[in-house]
Amino acid sequence: MALKALDIYKLLPKKNCKECGDPTCLTFAMKLASGKADVDLCPYLDDQAKSVLGATTRPPIRLIKLGVGERSFAVGEESVLYRHDKTFYHPPGLLFKVSDTQSAEEITAATIRVRDETLTRVGTDLRFNGIAIENTSGSPAVYAHAVATVEENADLPLVLIAKNTEALNAALIQVGSYQPLIHAATKENFREMCAIAKKHNCPLAVKAHGLDDITSLVKECLAEGVKKLVLDLCPQSLGNYITLSTAIRQLAISRAVPDLGYPVYIDATHPSLQDAAIALGIVKYASVIISPPLSPASSKAALTLRQNIYTDPQKPIQMNPGLYRVGTPGKDAPVLMTVNFSLTFFTLQGYLESSRVPCFLLIVDTEGLSVLTAVAAGKLNETLVRDSIRKFNVENEVSHKTLIIPGYSAPLSGMIEEATGWKVLVGPRDAAEIGEFLHEEWKK
Fold first, then answer.
1. CA neighbor of 309 nearest in space, from 92, 146, 97
2. Do residues 90 and 306 lie in contact, with contact meaning Cβ atoms separated by under 8 Å?
3. Closest CA to 159 of 83, 75, 265, 254
4. Where in the chain is the domain with CATH 3.20.20.20?
5. Could you tell me the sign of the dihedral formed by the alpha carbons of 109, 112, 114, 117, in that order?
């Protein structure tokens, strides 16, 4: 049973030393009770207190960081089974897999794609996260050279995939200080793998079939002193992956089996299943997803799906309110008003750019609601429009006082005219028609 904040506070040293990062022990206790902190952050807890607090206070799924520096990423620390219950916080890392038997040119090309390729969608830059390098050759020297080739071209989080501990050691000479994920500890080699992970302070993937075997292996690795773990479930099929990943998420967030409270790894490199495996991994709890370099279409699909799933469903993506320019508008350019729902903004912006009519776009704050929803909820009204015109000094940017409003806000046109003193033109309901509207209806 989870402890309450006051029960936890009684077990703390009450020094208010701030060494845990919180101003008081009570604040730290409240974070522990909500699963947002780890008991290990307190340097003064005795062994008995740590034993009592244990897994009942730390986040149900441990936060694991891959890599260091600007491109590092964190996974885990999720607390719900369904994103609409709260939200999912840490998007899975999507990493391209290369082999040390590939040519240096092929390895370099995949690395540069991850380093440079960006998909901009609704104002956010979407990118792949890193490179997984597999020791297919079995040679430590060849593997080290492949890892060095990646490092020469980019500073990216890495996954080192090797059964040969000599190959891993050779690779880690190149990148050990950058904390790559080591793959993987098994029942046969976990002691050697744990020793390597401890030496370089790297996260370690544990690989086993079935819940019982993975739980047993996690306990063995914890006993060896390795706490930064990722679970490779070795699914036999996509259906088996769904069953296992869902069971692990349920057991972890309910704290029924705390030893399963770690991020999940999936290898989506099977040629006939890779797109389906990537999609399943994103929507069903994978935190590290390994795939071959994807086609442009598959890349866009994967990045878009990840963005959609890891956007808070209770907080629509919003634009900052303000006055935006499309093209290079002059004093006689039209002014169009719309809401700060990102999808509305970027859709309208795209059609305005296609129209080749320079204009101003006045974005008002409807808390991320679409036009129709904002009108129905009373979030879009004449007072908001009036205050936005004043706040963003629209009158100083143009030589006229004419405002074009969205078609779905037509019922507000008269009230907006009265409140602002501006003439109001009601634009089309469909943003695709805005170009034709401007060419035919806009009067300078």
1. 92
2. no
3. 265
4. 64-309
5. negative
Instruction: Please report the pLDDT score of residue 35 as a whole number.
Output: 67
pTM: 0.79
- Collapsing DSSP states into helix, strand and coil, what is residue 293? coil
The CATH 3.40.50.11600 portion of the chain extends over 322-441
The DSSP-derived string for 166-230 is: HHHHHHHHHHGGG-PEEEEE-TTTHHHHHHHHHHHT--EEEE-SHHHHHHHHHHHHHHTT---EE
pLDDT digits (tens, 9 = 90+) for 306-321: 999 998 887 778 888 9
Which token pair is 278?
A: 């990537």
- Other Cβ atoms less than 10 A from the Cβ of 407: the count is 16
Contact 205, 184 (CB under 8 A): yes
Lowest mean pLDDT among 20-24, 397-401, 407-411: 20-24
Among the four given CATH numbers 3.40.50.300, 3.30.70.20, 3.20.20.20, 3.30.980.10, the one describing domain 64-309: 3.20.20.20
Q: What share of the chain has pLDDT > 70, as a percent? A: 98
Amino acid at 346: F
Integer CA distances (angstroms), 8 to 15, 26, 136, 252, in order: 14, 9, 49, 21
Strand 322-326 vs strand 286-291: parallel, antiparallel, or unpaired?
A: unpaired
CATH 3.90.226.10 fits 322-441, yes or no: no
Report the distance separating Cα 298 and Cα 375, nearest Å. 37
What residues have CB less than 8 Å from 357, skipping those under 6 apart? 327, 333, 334, 435, 438, 439, 442
Is 255 in contact with 2 (CB distance < 8 Å)?
yes
**Is 5-55 a domain of CATH 3.30.70.2740?**
no
Listed in order, the ranges of the chain carrying CATH 1.10.15.40 are 5-55
Residue 439 CB neighbour total at 10 angstroms: 11
In whole angstroms, give the CA distance from residue 109 to residue 230: 28
Question: If 0-12 CB within 10 Å is exposed, 13-18 middle and 19+ buried, where does residue 379 land?
Answer: middle
The DSSP result for 319-360, as a single string, is: PPPEEEEES---TT--EEEEE-BHHHHHHHHHHHHHHT--EE
Proportion of the chain in helix, strand, coil states, percent, rounded to 5: 45, 15, 40
Can you read off the two tokens belonging to residue 323?
A: 């006055």
